[in-house]
Amino acid sequence: MEAGIERLPCRSPILVAHPLAFESKKCEGIGEIGSLLTSKKLSEHFRLQLSSIPLWLSERLVFLGEIPRNFAFEAGAAVGYMQDGEGNKIPDLLPDDTALVYRAEAGLVIITGCSHSGICNITEYAKEICGDSRVLDIIGGFHLLEPSEEKINGTLEYLKILNPTCVHACHCTDLNSKIELSKVCRLKEVGIGLQIEYF
Q1: What is the pLDDT of residue 3?
Q2: Partners of 118 in the β-ladder
Q3: CB-based contacts of 120, cutoff 8 Å, min separation 6
Q4: Which residues have C-beta within 8 Å of that of residue 128, sequence separation ≥ 6?
Q5: At what angle do helices 149-162 and 175-182 cross, to 10 degrees?
Q6: CA–CA separation, 48 vs 76, rounded Å?
Q7: Residue 171: how many other CB atoms lie within 10 Å
Q8: d(CA 106, CA 92)
Q9: How many Å apart are CA 164 and CA 133, to the nearest integer?
Q10: What is the pTM of this model?
Q11: CA-atom Rg of the chain in angstroms
């Protein structure tokens, strides 16, 4: 320690994730596609809080944990595989795909990642956990890249009934899907640097 400099202790930041988020995941012909950092390694730098159930981060912000998959039209295909203790391959249906929800005064703001769980499944679970059916905005990936007719039609029908104040569909949402989404809800432009405030 340098003379005259006092080192103050600092607390490690908390890292919140699903318990499977840091497991090894592989894809044939590619190899590792999961996290390159194990939970053991991350725990040297973060306080890990792994949860498959909803976890309130503040009075207004909740981590949803594992999303129940109730809409048949949103059933997803496996993305690679995990391996059990005996080396058996288990198709990875991405149970660790999750989302955040912010409870604003006028309703919910749902913040997604890639939405492998299904954007409708995520939204329904957000409404259930927060006890509020008013949706102000859905921001993030919608997992609508060349979706089947059943999936896009189911999603459009759901959003038409939901009638969110607006929607910011980001990555994993192709142009044709955005065009269709714009016919049933207020689809807003989104890009790097966008700032949105909700109170």
Answers
A1: 59
A2: none
A3: 71, 74, 154, 155, 158, 159
A4: none
A5: 30
A6: 28
A7: 14
A8: 37
A9: 10
A10: 0.92
A11: 19
